[in-house]
Specification:
Helix content is about 20%, strand content about 35%. The chain is of the alpha+beta class. A 6-stranded antiparallel sheet has the order 3-2-4-10-7-8. Strands 29-28-27-26-25-32 form a 6-stranded parallel sheet. It has 16 helices and 45 strands. A hairpin with a 4-residue loop joins strand 33 and strand 34.
Length: about 850
């Protein structure tokens, strides 16, 4: 065969292949990014200023140097005027002739905050009234080849809803709205923007999430929902609910293929016959790898892809990472009262976690790196659940993707908190669209464990005295509560059912108030007796509900963070700045009161900050230990709160700059899969409890030592060959106080309890007296700092017990351990991951030993 003939055959083969595989001339889906450089100005003013979208007006003003940092000092009070003004944004962009030839061109705003009118080339194309919704409109007829102009005008939410507030006829409760008039119930916007008892009032406006043009022809894959109809270790049965947008409106044969990586799971031919076309495909996976939460197994994610093609030409495709698991919420009468616990893949799971709030008041500056670090902080503290609280936002897709990958379950509130809401038809319709969109966006995520209607509204209506406070007539009360029932008992659950969502739903949290002893036998609980009720820390040990979804105590952030919002002249509790950054009505006084109960009197503000964190950690230790020791009665503990949205004193365990407080280090130990608790009893005994959350039973040995502060061991007790049952209440040992402690002096000795398995060691220290009554000695502290790959290693040794040793440098970062008790003559090494240089000279050491 000649070379020429071979070439002719090759050309004919290629032409035939091209003709078979690309018979259609269908343009690919195009996405034109419209974020980045914009201009903005106050409506009615002249002169444009640069903005970088996504953003909000306060952030743009700050970046342009037109306002001071609202988080510094009392600058928050200087930006209140912004929320009363209207603001205008604009951007020029290019459109090609090829783009205009597509069948559909949609302008998509993933987030407009909140009341906005959008113009293209001088024509209005949409109006928004909900921060939580995605807004999309077919804008093809408004575009032209070449230069186009996009303009967005934001109206002040206060001016927009002031008339609704005035004309309602009665006041809707909005206890955390720090402004006047209190319009926040009327605005579908993050409630915390109007102020809360841990954050400032920053009523933002802006294009706060991405904006883009999306153009397509023939068909577009709009949505896929993977309903998991049956999940077990032998087989996973799924139904893919596929929604196509089919503007072609000509009956054509299309092929849909479902793949897991390269493995084809299902193939079907369809003939769409309407613009919005719904189709279902059943498929299964034998011996599936199940998704487990952190601590129980691998958070395995399948990568499912759906391809839509015609005559072998791929028209559109969508890939989602899906975790196969079954999540249940069990609320049943039992021998105690009414249970409240989650089952994952058929296994009851004790939930260990925290409440999560938005990471900033200026939301667009929360980066993917910040999300990664926040989720990693939760994982590092052995958490398996976060509650996305109802006064914030429905978080970004990236947040939930990180939770999926990390095995962090998410209790998802809808965005309603601590107030009552209107019930007119426009408001209810707006809420329904908000719910539909966000449920559709989030329902595929393996991490979603629960949909919860709101935060604290039902318990507030029944217990906070609003009817008397606002002087409601019987008709007013009936109207308000019927509006509540419409949203939380009809609209939301009906929408979830219609969308075939498989996660459970509850209308509110808590379902039980903390006012009476019987309340602790039923449902979920927000226990605020120690804070708002001004009860002692010891009440944490007895007031244990069935699922503790909120409780907490405040502390100040690290001094590094304090320095970011104040100068040294303000470093005292009575300063203007410290009072301004304390948003709780009883905050600084409560911290000081409890600190003085357990700890020595600080001689400086930095010592006060340090002791405030130890005080917080001690209170939360009593609470969490009691919750976990009561496993069976209690099946979850989510403290308030994980993180901050600005720098200031709050209930968080991680401050605004990402510094771990003493509480977060404490939580990491308290949330280990095996807990040790040491507790004195009323009959002069010492009780030691072991509780396991492991998947399997654990065998090990228990070693109990009474140790003097100089390291002398005064008494030893061993319990050999123990079997600690998986997922049960645990083991309990009691010893007469006199037998265990003997002649040891309570003020200079402690109990050290260790549970050792073949591969792991767990330890808990117990002190007989509060720290301020301990006879601590001045230590001979030996330190050595060594550079290692990626950071530094600090070795520390002492000749005597050092209580709550805190190490801080002038560089940002969290040591692998901190605020810890350094035992006598037992060296400990901690690590700091950093790219910056540090020396021993710029490290700061503080302990209770140095304060007594």
């Amino acid at each position: 065969m000649s070379q020429l003939f071979k070439l002719i055959l090759l050309v004919h083969s290629l032409l035939f292949f091209y003709a078979c595989t690309t018979p259609l001339n269908i343009p690919t889906i195009e996405k034109i990014d419209l974020t980045g450089d914009w201009q903005f100005k106050q409506v009615g003013k002249t002169g444009w200023t640069k903005a970088v979208i996504p953003s909000v007006v306060q952030l743009d003003l700050l970046n342009a140097g037109l306002i001071e940092d609202p988080f510094y000092g009392t600058n928050e009070t200087e930006i209140g005027w912004i929320e009363w003004e209207d603001w205008e944004y604009q951007k020029d962009f290019e459109v090609s002739e090829t783009l205009l030839q597509q069948d559909v061109i949609e302008l998509v705003f993933e987030g407009l905050d909140t009341y906005a009118e959008v113009w293209i080339n001088g024509q209005t194309v949409l109006k928004s009234d909900n921060m939580f919704r995605t807004w999309r409109v077919n804008c093809q007829k408004h575009l032209k080849v070449g230069k186009n102009q996009l303009k967005v005008v934001f109206k002040s939410p206060l001016k927009e809803k002031e008339a609704a507030f005035r004309n309602l006829g009665y006041t809707l409760p909005a206890d955390n709205d720090a402004g006047s008039p209190k319009v926040s119930p009327f605005v579908r916007k993050a409630p915390y923007h109007f102020g809360w008892d841990w954050g400032p009032r920053v009523v933002s406006m802006g294009i706060w999430r991405p904006v883009y043009l999306e153009a397509y022809s023939f068909v577009k894959l709009q949505d896929v929902y993977y309903e998991q109809t049956s999940i077990n270790t032998q087989r996973a049965a799924l139904t893919a609910h596929i929604q196509l947008d089919y503007p072609n409106l000509e009956e054509e044969n299309l092929t849909i293929v479902i793949k897991n990586d390269a493995q084809i799971l299902a193939t079907e031919s369809i003939r769409p016959n309407q613009r919005t076309f719904q189709h279902q495909i059943d498929f299964s996976i034998p011996q599936p790898q199940l998704w487990w939460c952190n601590g129980l197994g691998d958070a395995h994610l399948y990568e499912f892809t759906i391809d839509v093609s015609k005559d072998k030409q791929l028209l559109c495709s969508q890939t989602k990472k899906i975790g196969l698991r079954k999540i249940e919420l069990v609320q049943s009468p039992d021998s105690i009262g009414t249970s409240y616990y989650f089952k994952l893949n058929g296994r009851p799971v004790f939930m260990k976690g925290a409440n999560y709030i938005p990471q900033d008041n200026l939301l667009p500056r929360v980066t993917q790196e910040a999300y990664q670090q926040t989720i990693q902080n939760a994982v590092d503290a052995n958490m398996n659940m976060l509650r996305v609280w109802g006064g914030g936002i429905y978080e970004s897709d990236y947040f939930y993707e990180q939770c999926d990958a990390a095995g962090l379950l998410v209790w998802q509130d809808f965005m309603f908190a601590c107030g009552m809401y209107p019930s007119d038809s426009n408001f209810v319709y707006n809420v329904q669209k908000e719910v539909e969109q966000n449920v559709q966006r989030l329902r595929n995520h393996a991490c979603i464990a629960l949909w919860c209607g709101n935060n604290e509204i039902e318990v507030a209506w029944n217990n906070w005295g609003w009817q008397k406070q606002f002087g409601y007539s019987p008709l007013d009360s009936t109207t308000i509560i019927q509006g509540y029932q419409t949203i939380f008992e009809q609209i939301i659950p009906n929408t979830l059912q219609k969308m075939q969502v498989q996660q459970p739903y509850v209308p509110t949290s808590p379902l039980s108030n903390w006012g009476t002893p019987d309340n602790f036998k039923h449902h979920s609980m927000h226990y605020w007796g120690v804070w708002h009720g001004r009860e002692p820390f010891e009440n944490y040990t007895t007031n244990v509900g069935r699922f503790m979804s909120e409780y907490g105590f405040q502390s100040f952030p690290n001094m590094q963070t304090v320095q970011q919002f104040s100068d040294s002249s303000q470093w005292h509790l009575e300063s203007v700045v410290m009072k301004h950054h304390q948003k709780s009505y009883i905050g600084n006084g409560m911290i000081k009161k409890h600190l003085e109960t357990y700890y020595p009197t600080p001689s400086s503000f930095s010592e006060f900050v340090y002791l405030s964190q130890l005080t917080q950690a001690y209170g939360m230790q009593l609470a969490i230990q009691s919750h976990r020791q009561s496993k069976g009665h209690c099946m979850g503990t989510l403290y308030w709160q994980l993180n901050d949205c600005w720098p200031g004193p709050s209930w968080s365990s991680i401050d605004y700059l990402g510094n771990w407080k003493a509480l977060h280090y404490q939580v990491r130990q308290l949330y280990q899969d095996i807990l040790i608790r040491v507790q004195p009893t009323d009959n002069h005994q010492v009780q030691i409890d072991l509780v396991s959350d492991k998947m399997q039973d654990t065998r090990g040995h228990l070693l109990i030592e009474v140790v003097r502060f100089d390291g002398t061991i005064l008494n030893t007790i061993k319990e050999e060959n123990l079997s600690l049952r998986s997922n049960q209440q645990g083991l309990h040992f009691t010893y007469p106080y006199s037998t265990l402690v003997g002649a040891a002096r309570p003020n200079n000795s402690f109990i050290r309890v260790r549970f050792s398995t073949a591969s792991e060691n767990y330890e808990q220290l117990y002190y007989f007296l509060p720290p301020k009554r301990l006879a601590l000695s001045k230590p001979d502290l030996q330190t050595k700092l060594t550079p290692i790959k990626g950071g530094f290693e600090l070795s520390i040794t002492s000749n005597t017990l050092i209580k709550n040793l805190f190490v801080q440098g002038n560089k940002h970062g969290n040591w692998s351990n901190n605020f810890f008790d350094l035992l006598p003559n037992q060296p400990q090494t901690i690590v700091l991951k950093t790219t910056e240089k540090i020396t021993l000279e710029n490290l700061y050491f503080l302990s209770i030993n140095t304060l007594i």
